[in-house]
Write a structure and sequence with these properties.
The chain is α+β, with helices and mostly antiparallel strands. It has two domains: about 10-65; about 70-160, PH-domain like (Roll). It has four helices and seven strands. The chain has a four-stranded antiparallel sheet, with no helix packed on it. A three-stranded antiparallel sheet has the order 5-6-7, covered by helices on one side. Helix 1 packs antiparallel against helix 2 (about 40-65). The longest helix has about 45 residues, at about 130-175. The radius of gyration is 28 Å and the shape is elongated.
Length: about 180
């Protein structure tokens, strides 16, 4: 299954322009304060400029992250592939940390599927097809649980193999053979 989430290019450009305006205002005001040291409200101006600069940088960072561009989700049997602006990322279903299914208003046919992988959050909107979103959420939830169960089983098998070897060495260390027992 494949699903593409389109993002608006004009929104990215508008947010970048707004970010540059905030950064420009902050820098120009700081330069003005530093050139004209006779102002009484120098501390308040510095605090407001720092806030403006911080907000501008935050807006700029949001427009540069992968979620700000079009994303194509390819749901395979074992992996989830994200075709991003800068390349492609593949994740096993076991790497999904959390899933969410959100219906903002039950009267509207609109739903969101949220996928949390590592530190990233990916939101897949379904307008007019909330039943498809629900089916996708259930499929992802099932595959993520299966992958995590398979992962825990393989971890237990590895611990069992290493645990037996480690238990044997611990037993040998705990019960040293006395010279009298060797005879």
């Amino acid at each position: 299954m494949e699903h593409t989430v389109k993002k608006s290019r004009t929104n990215r450009i508008a947010m970048r322009v707004t970010a540059f305006v905030f950064i420009l205002v902050a820098v120009l005001r700081l330069v003005d304060v530093l050139m004209n040291r006779g102002q009484r409200n120098m501390v308040i101006t510095a605090i407001l400029c720092a806030g403006c600069l911080t907000y501008g940088i935050i807006l700029l960072r949001q427009t540069l992250r992968p979620q700000a561009y079009d994303i194509t989700y390819v749901f395979g049997d074992k992996t989830l592939t994200l075709k991003l602006h800068g390349g492609e990322k593949k994740y096993d279903y076991g790497q999904i940390d959390n899933l969410g299914y959100v219906v903002p208003n039950p009267n509207l046919d609109y739903a969101l599927v949220q996928i949390y992988i590592e530190k990233e959050q990916y939101v897949i909107p379904f307008t007019g097809t909330s039943n498809v979103g629900k089916a996708l959420y259930e499929m992802l939830n099932m595959k993520a649980e299966e992958a995590k169960q398979a992962e825990t089983i393989s971890d237990k098998e590895e611990q069992g193999k290493t645990g037996k070897a480690a238990a044997g060495t611990k037993q040998a260390q705990a019960d040293p053979v006395r010279k009298e027992d060797r005879k």
